[in-house]
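Example 3.2
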Amino acid sequence: MNNTVLRLTSLTLIWLYCTAVAQAGQVITQEERAWARQVLTQEKTLGAISTPNAIAVMYFNNRSGRERLTPLQKGMAVMLITDLAKVEKIRVVERTKLQALLDEMELGASGLMDAETAPEVGLLLRASYVTGGDILQGTSKELEISSSVFDVPLDKFTPQQPAAGAVNEIFKLEKKVLFHIIDHMQIALSPQKKAELERPLSTSTAALLALFAGIDYSDRGLYLRAANMYEQALIEDPSLKMAQNALLELKGMGLVTLEELSGEQRGPQPPLPASAPDDGLSTGSIVAIGLGVAAVGGGLAFALGQDDDESETTPVDPEDTTPPTVTADPAENTALDCSGGNILFSFSEAMAETGEALLSNEGIIQQGWRGNRVYEVNWSADESICNNLSPITVTLSGFKDTSENLLAEPTSFTYSSRNSTALQSEL
């Protein structure tokens, strides 16, 4: 009986944690990644229970043939999550929690809904609905958004009425999809609430695409580039509060500094890496539409105004010769727990998934990649790394990015152990 109560309490806390603030921040924290790992470890013990009117919004697949609209894949989800969270009767899974879970499931590069992912995501998140869709080619200057809703308890996909409209009015297309979803969930809206939901995040397509590009960069740990995109979004629409909040979040968490954001002090930016199939965002297309490291001005708006029958030239990125950097969590000089724990090494670029972590005291560890930007070192009580009182130095050897650039210094991180720290305090 006690185990049943404990399990139900745990599941309730998991759900509350992932839906508490559906539009809190855009940075995926280590706490969220730990939460996602915990959810996956409980997957086999989860029953078919779902939370009524709880919904997870997956990313939309860009099938329009317009590479410059790739940021809209996450953007449609961002807009829908923001609006659905305003409806009191709906509980929405926070986007960063969903992204952390998708990363752990090795689906983070796409996050697209299909017949396999929707049931599993719905089960893991205790959601009764999962939604997502496709961005399709309409007429020469139109888009069509095709969406569907997966009812988790019924194990059933229901296609929604497609939403078609002008490319430069994507905010209107999102509203059509939004109200189709709410109707499917059979939730009645008051005239006041409907009027509130009809207000767009921004009427500037240029600002929205810059915002969405920034969010994707943030998910991949490229925080300075994310900040550049948020700044560009604010140039296009100074009242875009989500971009303001996202930029403040990066500054407040110390992920970017004022010096880095200052063009005078920052100097030339390192070249963008060549886009890879699993990037989730084509950096080449961002350069093409003016969302690169330089100030954009009206470049994006001009690109969106072009007829689709005109040739679209994507410039080739210069060779990437910038060494990747790495940060450690916990930070260097932290006292490690000998009874078990881990260190996560986060890289500034997509890595070639090679390399090895070496310990100065030859302690026994487990190690491996989590995606292509995070490398984990962990240990347990029966494989303690604290086999003497000396400081523990972890050296990263052989790590290089996808452009074959070796890791920049520092590549070694020194820690103390709680056992040695406690003994020294006693002495």
